Structure formats: C-alpha cells, structure tokens
What does this fold into?
Amino acid sequence: MKKETAAIPLIEAHRAALKLPRPNDWEYGYYYYNSKLANEATAFTILCRHFPELAKKLTYEELKPLTQMIEAADFNTLSAAWSIQALKAYSDLAASNGVKAGIASVQGQDVKVLAEPAMGQLQVKVPEGMVRFFFAENSPEGLGAWYQTIEKGFAKDLPETASSTHIEVLREFVDADGQPVTQSKLGETLFAKLTIRNLTKTDLANIALTEMLPGGFEFAPPGEPDSLRPGLATRQGTDYIDIREDRALIYLGLRAEGALTLQYALRPTCAGTFVVPPPYAEDMYDAKVRANGAVGKIIIMARE
It folds into this structure.
C-alpha cells in the first residue's frame, strides 16, 4: 500500500541524488549494475508509473539524461532494458494525457508532413534533409517527445586515426626479425602483431576483436608455424578464434589494466599497394567499451 506523504519526499530525494557527481572512488567495474543510465531510467520508470502528477510536470530536461547517453552509445544490456522500460512508461503517460506528436521533413522553405499528429509511437522512413517534430495544437504543455533514427549500411570512409574507449587496439606488420615493415615481396611471409589493452581497473570478460585482412593477403595455412588456428583457446589468452576468408574474429577476456599480444603469419598473394583496414574491438554486451586502430597501407612488390 502506497503512502503518498512518505513516497513523494523519497522519490524527490532520489531524483536530487541522481544529479550529484560520482564519488572519487567510483570505478568502471561498477558500471554494469550501477551505471548512470540504469539509475536514471529506473527512477524515470517509477516516476511515470507511480507518480503521474509529478510526471506530468516533466520536460525534456528530465528526459535528456536518458536520450543523451543512448545517443552516445553509453549503455549495456541491463541499462538498455531499463531504458526501454522508461521510454515505454513515458509513452504510456503521454498517451493517457492526450499528447499528439507529428513528424515533418524540412528542406529549405519546403515543409512536408510525413506523419500527422497522433498519440503513441510514430515510424517513418526519413528522406535526405532535415526532420523536425511538432505537436498538435491541443496537446498539453510540459510533456515532450523523444525520437531515434536508425541508419543501415557501411561507413564510406575508414578511420584515419585510432580511437579508444576503455580499451585500446594496435596492429602493425613485422618481418621474421620482429621489425616493423611497410612493404614486402611476393613469396615472403609477413606477421601481423596485434595488441589489445584494457585501460580500466576492472576485468573485461567479453571482448570481440575483428581483424580484417588487406586485399591480396591470406592467412597462413593452419599447419604452418605461427599460423592463426580456429577453435577454442588455440592461442593463449583467447577464448575462441573464428577464421573467415577475409578476417579473423577473436573472442577474449582481459584482466584489469592487462594486455594481450598476438602475432600470426600472413601471406601476400599478389603485387600492388593495398589499404590495411583497421582492427576493431568491442565488448559484446557493453557498447561503451570499444576501440579501433588506424587505416594503413602496405606495398607488395613482385618477385625479382
């Protein structure tokens, strides 16, 4: 049984606490179960479901902490589930109060309505150009709208510089003596030296690493020394390695502030200048943990 006089001060105190900065001893290891998004979404869900009179006064400023972190991919499987709950509770609250939102495409001076104002969720295919939301004239004030755009396809450009968020991944080509190289000859064996590093003070158990080959290269056959072999724990420090025609998918875990270096043999199959795709690494359940290397170039010369 809910007691309004006791419940309202509690939820107000909790909302105020969410605005306080993290303590100095807060570590990334607490992130999964105690992330800011999970806390914000939990409080927002309770507010919309059980305190409708307070929730009616919400504006986009109260919704912004959720949407900004989702937009920045600062979520994991747990906080994502809570965010869905929060947005659904907000949608139900808006619908019960008669809020109607529409979608229009704005290109210069031309305005084209893509969806007429309606309650609940709206879904449209977005044309090129700017898009804006608008509310029906009779919608109550206060409650706002939240939107999400989804893109499909592949990036047109490869990253020129490396980036890292909680993990770091580096790759270079070396010769048999371990010296970095930017060119080689047909018939020679090169080695890819791949290093991934945990930049946090907690263990990361679910890292997926994608290593794409440059055009004109192939992995050395599994029977040869230093070859990358598929299967469970075929290399020390890995959980599983999946070898494809043009890439390797490497699954592993890293200790706190730990690192793993893998070196394996590659064979150039034709002469030319080839773009070297960057390696990518990410946590399979935590979108904020990710890194990529930088695009490179390698020259393969014909046999003399």
